[in-house]
Design the sequence.
């Protein structure tokens, strides 16, 4: 095991929490490229330098602490937050990377590098910094992205221009290791210490629009209405039953946004547009879910005298974690927390998805108290944070040995 220092690790986690502290519990507001985010990245660069790592900030603002060796294992995550975020989402993996790289340098090896990717939380896109670095999104394409206030990615990243250099070559790394809070309830409810991630689920997004007949809400009899909103309600009511024999307990689907036109108290809605998102580890199951969504919507439209249309499908494919790296983490978990770990999928997207374009990747989860994340109330017991660090240190040492680092 790499001889990590738990007290130093926790102190650094709490130091990072002060950048953008919300004043509500341990919550933070540290959106990508805001003043607290940039200040946090400058602080992190100082910590990397003090640890004897070569500091490099790439053109999109991701901060790297590079081991001097030609090849190293990369450990990290992201330090930007949601608008109302928790203190550990991403930050845990960043400080784990710092502590492992620093402890490895102090011990004379193995070669560990660290990173904090920029804009994982998607102010401008989806895992923007790692996607650009991974070659999944061209920098020119990313520069045209805008946030909800109309600020462009190009304008935002210019705020870090004084720090920025070139991109780091992926060939420097033999693999990527990311530690993260689970952001779900399974480990916490089971009283387990860590989860070895088997895969990151795939995601599908689609918009559905029901078209009806806009009319007067006071004079149109109920049996004569073609209410587009009621079409959406009926569709939602049928969907869970239609999915029942297709999905697993880990499959999820969400309607997170709905628009009713014209949106007046006194008008029967003529149009209703809503978003559907579904996630699963199996491409075939996601395709079957899409077919059920389309069939159900068309059936509802026909039965209610409505029209229905579908947007194109947007999504990401499932990403399996590297089998050998998984086994290294599993062996470490059994050594550090015997019988208190499991293999599990990630229902959330992470930077590891982008990094997997270039190298083997693996992830480790620690429990989230009551499964809460993306909220000021997000938290993990410090004993569990330390256990996660120790499992990560043991697993990284096993990987480094196997990789010849």
Sequence:
């Amino acid at each position: 095991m790499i001889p990590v220092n738990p007290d130093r690790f926790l102190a650094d986690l709490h130091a990072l929490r002060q950048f953008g502290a919300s004043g509500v519990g341990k919550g933070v507001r540290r959106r990508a490229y805001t003043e607290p985010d940039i200040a946090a990245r400058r602080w992190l660069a100082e910590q990397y330098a003090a640890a004897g790592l070569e500091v490099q900030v790439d053109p999109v603002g991701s901060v790297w602490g590079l081991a001097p060796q030609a090849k190293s294992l990369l450990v990290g995550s992201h330090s930007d937050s949601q608008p109302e975020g928790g203190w550990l989402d991403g930050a845990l993996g960043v400080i784990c990377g710092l502590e492992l790289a620093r402890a490895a340098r102090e011990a004379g090896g193995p070669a560990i590098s660290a990173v904090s990717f920029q804009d994982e939380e998607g102010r401008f896109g989806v895992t923007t910094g790692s996607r650009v670095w991974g070659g999944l999104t061209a920098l020119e394409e990313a520069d045209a992205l805008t946030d909800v206030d109309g600020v462009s990615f190009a304008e935002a990243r210019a705020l870090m221009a004084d720090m920025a250099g070139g991109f780091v070559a992926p060939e420097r790394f033999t693999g990527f290791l990311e530690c993260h809070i689970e952001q779900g309830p399974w480990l916490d409810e089971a009283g387990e210490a860590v989860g070895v991630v088997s895969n990151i689920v795939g995601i599908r997004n689609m918009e559905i629009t029901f078209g009806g007949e806009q009319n007067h809400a006071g004079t149109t009899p109920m049996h004569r209405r073609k209410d587009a909103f009621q079409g959406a309600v009926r569709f939602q009511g049928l969907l869970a039953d239609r999915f029942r024999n297709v999905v697993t307990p880990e499959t999820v689907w969400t309607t997170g946004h709905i628009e009713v036109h014209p949106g007046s108290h006194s008008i029967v809605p003529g149009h209703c547009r809503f978003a559907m998102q579904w996630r699963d580890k199996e491409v075939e199951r996601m395709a079957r879910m899409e077919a059920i969504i389309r069939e159900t919507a068309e059936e509802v439209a026909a039965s209610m005298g409505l029209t229905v249309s579908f947007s194109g499908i947007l999504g990401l494919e499932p990403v399996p974690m590297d089998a050998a790296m998984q086994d290294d983490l599993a062996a470490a978990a059994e050594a550090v927390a015997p019988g208190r770990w499991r293999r599990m999928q990630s229902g959330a997207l992470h930077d590891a998805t982008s990094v997997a374009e270039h190298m083997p990747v693996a992830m480790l989860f620690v429990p989230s108290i009551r499964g809460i994340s993306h909220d000021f109330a997000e938290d993990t017991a410090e004993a569990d944070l330390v256990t996660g660090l120790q499992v990560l240190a043991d697993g990284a040492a096993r990987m480094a040995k196997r990789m010849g680092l």
